[in-house]
Amino acid sequence: MTMKHAIAICIVLCACGSKKPKTNDEGGGGIDMTSHGDTVDHSGSMVPPEKMDEITRLLDRKRPTVSRCLTMVVDNQELPKGSKGKMTLGITISTAGHATNVKVISSSLESKPLADCVIGKIQEIQFPDLPKEYETTYAYAFEAIQ
What pLDDT, in 10s, does the model give residues 52-104? Predict the structure, then answer.
């Protein structure tokens, strides 16, 4: 193995979340009170918590693959050895389970090839079918060790 390939990459899950639906029902029953006091039941179109958990697990499992993006960028000398940082992504998942919109919200590693690689890896994931489009954020921390 060459020194170029001996770089160990550590990647740590930093954050994951989603946009919380707006409801006036704090119990999470899916009832939305309109300004006229009418009630509309949206519970059938909410993303169930177990689907959210599955999405998080799928993003967690992608960490080793995503870490190879940093290895590639360091090997190509686009970032220096010993680079470390955090990248937060905004992800929209369609009802068919595809990441239709993945974008870098923030990153301490300024590298378009790294961002493009990470986005491509996330777009490869087959997420579960959902009752409605789901928007979430997810952050990866990278560290290249010589």
Answer: 999 999 999 999 999 999 999 999 999 999 999 999 999 999 999 999 999 99
Q: Which residues on adjacent β-strands are paired with residue 134?
A: 93
Cα 87 from chain centroid (whole Å): 10
Closest C-alpha among 32, 120, 27 to residue 72? 120
Block residue for tokens 């686009």: 78
Rounded alpha-carbon distances, angstroms, from residue 140 to 12, 59, 90, 96: 6, 10, 12, 25
Give me the amino acid identity at 47.
Answer: V
- Alpha-carbon distance of 64 to 8, in angstroms, equals 11
Domains, the chain, in order of start with CATH, read 31-145 (3.30.2420.10)
**Entry pTM:** 0.70
